[in-house]
Amino acid sequence: MASITTRIGPSDRGRKMTLEEFREAEEEPGYDYELARGVLEVTEVPNDRHWQVVDNLHEMVSTHRRQHPGVILRIGRGSDCRVWVAEMTSGRNPDLAVVLPGTPPDTRGRRPPSLLAEVVSEGGEDRDYRAKREDYLAFGVREYWIVDRFLRHVTVLERRDEHGTPTWAERTFVEEDAIESLVLPGFTGTPSQLGVGVEAGGDEGRRALS
Fold first, then answer.
1. Domain limits, the chain
2. pTM, two decimal places
């Protein structure tokens, strides 16, 4: 018996779904979809300013890969990598994902990322600073970067295990600070470099649909 494919679009924002339903759903193009604790989130595709910061970040990490051969296996963006967090019933699309060589494959045969990054968008502060940091900790990622171009800083969260309980150790880098990373040793990119080419003006970013 043929299964019926679930179709989702902007009108389904707030819909409750299982992880499997979300995984198999057919998405109306032109929007970004994430499952957050079993509830569907639908946002507009990021505009040029948000996209520029993501592109700058991608180029910065790519430069590090060229300067340090063998450190990075691959780099992915939004549509390249969806993070499934079964414990949280969440499916996330990080703005950037970095996979390291030698990372053991998961149960689906895929090598999970060791570093995830999100660029904060207008109206998405709570999602990036709170909800996703909890999801990514549960996922097991070693490092999570929150790139906030409004505050002009980068927050690096490094995974720690305190008495068997995972937690984040947090550091913030501003302006011309070299962003220090345990996952990418020798990294020299700065928060100010992430704003290169970003036009001034009203905002912006990835807006949640109402």
1. 1-45, 46-195
2. 0.91
Give the separation between CA 48 and CA 38, rounded to whole angstroms: 30
State yes or no: pLDDT of 130 exceeds 60.
yes
The pLDDT assigned to 208 comes to: 54
Q: Which CATH architecture has domain 46-195?
A: Alpha-Beta Complex (3.90)
In whole angstroms, what is the distance from residue 156 CA to residue 174 CA? 11
CA atoms of 69 and 54, how far apart (whole Å) = 22
Give 149: exposed, middle or buried? Use CB within 10 Å, 0-12, 13-18, 19+: buried
CB atoms within 10 A of CB 168: 16
pLDDT value at residue 1: 46
Does residue 132 surpass a pLDDT of 90?
yes
Tokens coding 149: 């171009």
Q: Find which of 15-24, 43-52, 73-82 is predicted with most confidence, using mean pLDDT.
A: 15-24
pLDDT in tens, 105-128: 988 888 999 999 999 988 889 999
